[in-house]
Each structure stands twice: as C-alpha cells, then as structure tokens.
Amino acid sequence: MKTHPRVSLSMLSHTRWTVDEDLAFFDREGVEVIGVSLAKLAAEGGWERYVERIRAGGYHVANVIGLGPIDWSDRARRADGLARTRDALDATDAFGADCIVITTGPAGQLTWEDAADAYADAVGPVFEEYAIPRGINVAIEHTNGLRVDVGFLHTLRDAIDLARRVGVGVCLEINACWAERNLGATIVDGVDTIRIVQLSDFAIGTKSTPNRLVPGDGDIPMRRIVGQLLDAGYDGVFDLEMIGPRIDEEGYESASTRAVEYVGGLLRDLGA
Q: Contact at 8 Å (CB) between 124 and 80?
C-alpha cells in the first residue's frame, strides 16, 4: 500500500478488530501514521498496557480519541468527568500523540449558550492547568446533528468559537461540515485552530449515522474542501475515520487500503 506522511489511519476504521489486529495490519501494510482509540484500549486492559508497544512500533500517533461523552450539564457527574478527562490527557501525553480529539458531551436541557458556559466552566480550567502547560494539543470535534448524545457542536464555526473561548483547537470532521454555509471562509478564518482533519465520505440519501464511505466513493466534494484547507495553510494530518455498515460489509482491509491510497493520491495531486 502506498502511504502518504500526512494520511493517518484510525483504529476506529476497524470497529470490530482487536488492537492486535489493528497493529498487525498497520505493520503488514506499512501504515506509520495512526489514530489510537481509547475505547478499544480500555476494552482490552487499558491504555497503559499498550504504551510501550505502540511507542516501540515506531508509529506517528496523530491523535488519541475515544474519551466518550460526558454530561457537563449535570454537576453531580462533573468529578467523574474531570477524572476521565485527565486520564485521557495522560494517555495522549504517554503516546506522544499530536492531539486528543474530544466531543463536548450533550447539552441536556440547557440552551446552546448555557451548555457552552457549563463546558467552559467545567473543562476550561483542566485545559488551562493540565493540558496546555504539558504541550498537549486538544481538538474539540463537531458532530453530526443526529448525534446530540455526544455533543452540542454541529457546525465547524461553532466548534471554532468554543475552542477559542477555552484556548484549544478543533477537529474538522468533514462528514459533519461539508455542506455548511460559507465553509471555505470558515476554514480560512479558523485555520489557526484546526489541529486535525477527519476524512470519510457520505452518500446523499443516507438517513442513518454513522454510515460513512471510503473517501472518493460518495458525494462530499473532497478535492475542493481538502484544497481549501491546503490553500488556507493547514499543514497537519488527514485522519481516516470510517465507521458504519458499508465499511463493515466491504471489509476493513479493502476499505482502509483504498482510503489510504485515494487520500494520499489526492494530496500529491494537490501538491501536499
């Protein structure tokens, strides 16, 4: 498989594989830039068990993801949420990852504005005191509007606004923002906050989520948006996070191989 140094393959693209199967595939296919799933590691004994192995494997860990949603609107759950957040930041530091990708958790019964206040009040100090001084990059991810269970940010613009408020960065999830109004201008205005870009494709008419496609197989104008990012000065990694029944049906080896080769070729064509 022909890889590109700015293309990362997330463990989340292989939902039903074990960590051992992920790492075996990475090694077999020469994938050096990876995304690490905390949820997978937790299910197999915890992230601490894999630090030495992944670091010794010579991988460039582009991101750590999988903290899971935390309801910051419920003050009774904040202590547990803060402990989980610190643990995830410790994992990011231990793996030497470029960033940690997190969602905000649900708004519950709060207005958007009150949810943002609750998030900033609860988590902002953790970023300021626990992440930023250690050089840990945090990327807040915006999500599909159907996934109010995991977050209340459903546009890239809102993610950038909240990230600036709490002094961190954003994860641009192309599957959740490709049809936004004035996306190109939002990218230009917010490129300084973009820490990582997640790529997958979408077929118009799909009414379930997550139900993603290999980049190039669907209707997202991948070349245009990736080109806008590069033209705006984004110099980071493009992370492949492909989840859903169509990926499961095709098979992870085939889907991942095609995705890595397609995005690598696209970046070369665009001069990256």
A: no
> pLDDT by residue (tens digit) across 7-20?
999 999 999 999 99
pTM over 0.90: yes
**Residue position matching structure tokens 């820490």:** 195
Q: Which is it for strands 33-37 and 7-10: parallel, antiparallel or unpaired?
A: parallel
Q: Which ranges of 167-221 would DSSP assign to H, the alpha helix?
A: 174-177, 183-190
d(CA 57, CA 41): 16
Domains and CATH numbers, the chain: 7-269 (3.20.20.150)
Residue that has been written with the tokens 């980049």 in this structure: 215
Q: Whole-angstrom Cα distance, residue 33 to residue 31?
A: 6
H helices present in 96-234, as ranges: 112-126, 156-166, 174-177, 183-190, 222-232
Weakly modelled stretches of the chain, pLDDT under 50: none
The partner residues of 4 in beta bridges, in order of sequence, read: none
